[in-house]
Design a protein that fits this description.
Number of strands: 0
Distance between the termini: 42 Å
Number of helices: 4
Order of helices and strands: HHHH
Number of domains: 1
Shape: globular
Radius of gyration: 14 Å
Structural class: mainly alpha
Length: 74
């Protein structure tokens, strides 16, 4: 099941790229929502989503991770 989810995530990434080229904002928004659902399901099953997919649906994720290190003692 995890491999099927990963495959679907890659397919959705491709479709999102095509929607960007065609400048179809509504289709892109729906695809991003679908991608987010698949990523959440994959993570719930213990899988790890590709970084490229995470950047599409969680663009601020990197800053959240960096914020965790701001208060770490050295």
């Amino acid at each position: 099941m995890i491999e099927a989810l990963k495959k679907k995530i890659v397919e959705l990434e491709d479709e999102i790229g095509q929607a960007e080229v065609s400048a179809d904002a509504d289709v892109r928004k729906e695809l991003l929502e679908d991608l987010e659902r698949h990523i959440e399901e994959l993570e719930a099953r213990g899988g790890k989503a590709p970084g490229s997919a995470l950047r599409l649906v969680r663009p601020d994720h990197d800053s959240e991770v960096e914020d965790q290190f701001d208060n770490m003692p050295i």
